[in-house]
What we know:
Elements: H1 2-12, H2 17-20, H3 32-41, E1 47-51, H4 93-100, E2 123-125, H5 135-141, H6 146-164, H7 166-174, E3 177-181, H8 184-191, H9 196-200, H10 203-223, E4 228-232, H11 241-246, H12 254-278, E5 281-285, H13 287-296, E6 305-309, E7 334-336, H14 344-362
Parallel strand pairs: 1-2, 1-3, 3-4, 4-5, 6-7
Helix pairs in contact: 1-12, 4-14, 6-7, 10-12, 13-14
Amino acid sequence: xxxxxxxxxxxxxxxxxxxxxxxxxxxxxxxxxxxxxxxxxxxxxxxxxxxxxxxxxxxxxxxxxxxxxxxxxxxxxxxxxxxxxxxxxxxxxxxxxxxxxxxxxxxxxxxxxxxxxxxxxxxxxxxxxxxxxxxxxxxxxxxxxxxxxxxxxxxxxxxxxxxxxxxxxxxxxxxxxxxxxxxxxxxxxxxxxxxxxxxxxxxxxxxxxxxxxxxxxxxxxxxxxxxxxxxxxxxxxxxxxxxxxxxxxxxxxxxxxxxxxxxxxxxxxxxxxxxxxxxxxxxxxxxxxxxxxxxxxxxxxxxxxxxxxxxxxxxxxxxxxxxxxxxxxxxxxxxxxxxxxxxxxxxxxxxxxxxxxxxxxxxx
Length: 364
C-alpha cells in the first residue's frame, strides 16, 4: 500500500492546491436534518439525473443492449433483494442523495414501464449504463447518448406540465438538482479499447474534447431550465479490479489514475467557468478521492477488501459475466461490488461527499 500512496503523491504533483483541497482523508459525517433544512430553505424540488451505470437505476433494462444488470446477484442487498438494473448490490449514490434531501429513497428510471405519472415530481434518472460524454461511447454499446437522455428530459417536462400546470412545472424544473455522472466509459470502453478516438486525439486532446461535450450538455440543460448542476468526477480508473487484472498489476495502475486526476482538474475548472458564465449553482463531487482513499485505507471506512470485487472472483466479472455468480458473504466489507462498480456502502460514502458539496454551494 505504500507503493500506491507514493503513486498518489506523484499524481498530485503539478496540480493546484485548490484541487488538492478536495481530497480530505476522512469520511464525512452528514447531518441529514441540516441537509433537509437547507434543501427546504432553497426550494430544492427533486433530483434529475444524467449519466452512466453509476447513476442508471434500470433504463438499460428496456434497451436492445447487453449492458444490463437486471438479474442476480445484482440487487442482492436492495429492498427485497431484487435486481433492478442498478450495477451494484443495492442503492446508488443518487438514491441516497434523494433520500437525504427528503424525497423518496430511490430515484426511479424514466423508462421504467412501471413508473407512474404521479411519481415524476419526485425526480427521475435518464442515465444509461455504458454511455459517456462522447456520443461514440454510447454507440459502441447501443445505449443512450446524453443527447437522447436530454430528449427524454424534454418529454419529462411535457408530462410535468400536463400533471401540474406550466407554472408549477417550471418551478420544479428550475429548482431541481441536476446530477451528471459519467466519463469512465469514454476512457475504458472507448479511448483505450477502440482505435477510432486515439487516431484523432492524444489523451490530453480527448480530455478537452470530452469537456467540450460536457459544456454543450450543461448549456442545453441550462436552456431547458436547469440552474443547479452537480457533476461527479471520474473515479480512479487504475484502481478498478478489472483494470488491474488487464494490466497484470496488484496495485492501482498509476498511468490511468493520472488520466483520471488530470481530467477531473480540468473538469472542475470548466465547471467553475460555466458557473460564472451561465450564473449557475454548481457542485463538484470528488469520486476519485473518495474511492482512492477507501482503496488505500479500507479499514478507516469500515471496509476489509479494497483490491477486488464481491462478485465471483472479484477480478474480472461485471455485468453479464457476473450473472448467477457466487458472492462474498458481506458486501459491506468491500469497496467494489463487481470488478468495475462500487458497492452500496461505497456509493453511500460518495453520496455523503456530494451532499457536503451541495449544501456548501446552496449556502454560499
